[in-house]
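dumping these here so i dont lose them again. two proteins, back to back, each one seq then structure tokens. dont judge the mess
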Amino acid sequence: MRVGVQIRRVPKGYAVEFGASETKSGRQLAYGLHPALVPVFDAYLKDARPHLGSSRTDLLWCSTRGCPLSLKQLSKIVFRRTREWFVVAHGPHWFRKCLRSSAGRHSPEAALDAAAVLGHGAEVSVRHYTEAGSTAALRRHGQRIDNLRQRTRLLAEQFFAEREGRASTWW
């Protein structure tokens, strides 16, 4: 991602734009940076990036040596940080997966919004929405089975306690 090219400062924050040839799906992708990230990005571009020696490149992410970070280097950083923060290491693609499946669990409309943000076609996000809905349904079904097992266990305890002339232990 190049400063001033794919990410540009605009009056209300930052515009992120990728041409069709720059995306996996072959579709143009454009959106504004969330307002909460604007001050963070301003600080990175104004303070941190020049401190890294960014004058050698217009690529957004720089190494501590002022060189552009490669995809492999960025991935290593993400794996290391997610391991520190979440105990399990995840790569950059994990965040896309989280957005896609979280949006799918939320609602069909959000699944289509996720498609726009990720540069997917609507059919891809609807498929993931369906998969996320199925996963949620399986969890609900498993919880119902657990509840029924618990109630059945309690009924069995009561029945056998009464049959053996003992007081019931389930209450």
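---- next one ----
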Amino acid sequence: MGDADIRFDGQVALVTGAGKGIGRAHAARLASRGAAVLVNNRSHPEDEGPGTAEQVAAGIRAQGGQALANEEHLERPGAAKRLIDDAVERLGGLDVLICNAGTSVIRPFHKTTSDEIRGLVEVNVVGTLELLREALLVMREAGKGAILVTGSTSGLFGDLGFGAYGATKAALQSLVPTLATENHQRGIRINSLVPFAHTQMTDWIFDGGHFPKGAAPGLGPEIAADLACWLVSRDCALNGETLIAGGRTLARAETRASRGVELLEAETSPEAIRDHYAQIADMSEAATYRQGGDLLAQITDRMLSLAEKGAGEDALRSGSR
């Protein structure tokens, strides 16, 4: 454990979806630690006066920090490149990216419209993927950088009413370990943060009685901002990880698969699978996989072992005749 404070002096950070809530907390925390922050939040036609991005940036500057505003809409063509170019041209580079922008639709999946599905995909998936690609081009050339993708419990575990939204978050979740593997040799780390906080976006959950309203005051975005600050700092070596933050709770999530069983060719049938299901589902020897290819390699190794075992048994039967 280090004794020095975590600092971002001389570093440039871009935070999307930073006009309010958790994104705003991320931007403020990074700026308070010395980062020059580009605060991104899309503008709205009904806005009067400065938009939310400029309000947050102005608040940071009033506290002695460095911040500029950007009002790009991620779903618009070319927005990702314009956003990255803005960070490089006006602030001098890109060391940290926090992909926090997103939109949600909350209703049973069968009642979700095609327009709503396309809107979710355009913002949460396409816009974020393009932003990650453009950021990686800059970071790979510089040979350094840290990226944090905002995840969701609905993307990890599913949630009633969050089917379409959760699907878009799951798409990003699956990307994190891939990018971590592809880019670590270029000095770039990428992790996922799954936050839960009482903000303007989640106020309805407490007002509607889904969670106790008395818990809301203790569920501010501060713990998520602290975790984000560490994850994108040079003090942190984590790569390809998913961490959860809410209230005073911190946790780590991972993807596991059971040890499972191997069935000989003569045993395979729907009935055999039914009869072996308890063993198939037994998680007592479950393993964690950082890449899908690791699991597939294990499956192919077991197939070879079964083939060798089968050949040996055939030889024994032939020799006993």
